[in-house]
Amino acid sequence: MSFLELRHVTKVYGDGSSEVRALDDVSLGVDRGGLVAVMGPSGSGKSTLLTIAGSLEEPSGGEVVIDGHSLSEMSHNDKARLRRRTIGYVFQDFNLLPGLTAAENVSLPLELDGTGARRARTAALEALERLGLVERAGHFPDQLSGGERQRVAIARAVVGERRLLLADEPSGALDSANSEAVMRMILAACKTGVAAMVVTHDAQLAAWADRVVFLRDGTVVDQTVPPPSAEALISSGPKP
Amino acid sequence: MSVRHALLGLLSEGPKYGHQLRQEFEARTGDVWALNVGQVYTTLQRLERDGLVASDDEAAEGPQKAFRITEAGAEELAEWLRTPPDLTTPPRDELVIKVLVALAMPTVDVHEVIQAHRRYLVELMQQWTRLKEDEGEFDLPLALVVDAELGRLDSVIRWLDSADGRLKRAVVEPTAPTAAPAPRLRRRLAVRR
Question: Which residues of chain B neighbour A204 with C-beta distances below 8 Å?
Answer without folding.
Answer: 125, 129, 150, 154
